[in-house]
Amino acid sequence: MTPLRTWRRLLPALFVAAVLTGCSDQNTEKQAPAATASDSAKATAAVPLGSGFDFYVLSLSWSPTWCGDNDPVGKSSQCEIGRNRGLIVHGLWPQNEKGYPDFCPTRQSDRVPSSLGRQYLDLIPSMGLIGHQWRKHGSCSGLSQDDYFAVTRAAWNRLTLPQELSPSRRQTNLSVTAIEDALVAKNPGMTKDAVAVTCEGDRLEEVRICFDKSLNFRACPEVNRQACRKNGVSLPPAP
């Protein structure tokens, strides 16, 4: 057989092999490298660092108590019948070891644009409250609006709420110690001196959690001194 005839017979096989090799290369290029546990840890740790204060207080409001006093007929989104809201984010407050800054001068706008605020309505269910928290507290964080609310969500995500603090259709009663113990049991690294429970009369008002600027739990003696002095509180039912 002549070399030319042999070459012609081999051409189809060589063409198929080239096509298969090309497809294999393309598939390899489209596959993103698998995320590692280290990558996830780095993403979690990437919290914008604020300045001009000592630590944060994440203030969580027991929505049924607030709604009972301020919107009993459920006109607002927060208090609407059937929403079944329990703890909502009141705000993330920059705090000093003694006292706290508020309404700080900043180059950022006083107004939180709806395009930003709407991203956080699942945490803070009112554009009015979102704007107020930025003006009073976020302006003192040393952060931009975007970063301040991103840290607010990160603080919320850092926290695991126990079943005892889930919204209910009936009133429950808990001791302050039981609330603290339940939170500590669910959140590794948290101690009871990082938690302050406040009350409105005999009702649960807020749960306040203290974090350092990197969102590690930390003690906050002055915040604790403002906590409820009652042995127990009632948790009004969700609307």
Walkthrough of the structure:
The protein has 239 residues and is an alpha+beta fold. It is 37% helix and 17% strand. It has helices at 3-30, 37-45, 63-70, 114-117, 127-136, 145-158, 176-186, 221-225; strands at 55-62, 87-95, 172-175, 195-200, 203-211, 232-235. The strands form two sheets. The protein has a four-stranded antiparallel β-sheet. β4 and β5 form a beta hairpin. It is globular, with a radius of gyration of 27 Å. Residues 1-8 and 10-44 have low confidence and may be disordered.
What is the overall number of helices? 8
Class by SSE composition: alpha+beta
Mean pLDDT: 86
Rg from C-alpha positions?
27 Å
What is the chains' assembly state?
Answer: single chain
How much helicity do the residues have? 25-40%
Largest sheet: 4 strands, antiparallel
Q: What's the end-to-end separation, in Å?
A: 91 Å
Tally the beta strands. Answer: 6
Strand content: 15-25%
Low-confidence regions: 1-8, 10-44
Task: Using the alpha-carbon principal axes, give the shape.
Answer: globular
Order of helices and strands, N to C? HHEHEHHHEHEEHE
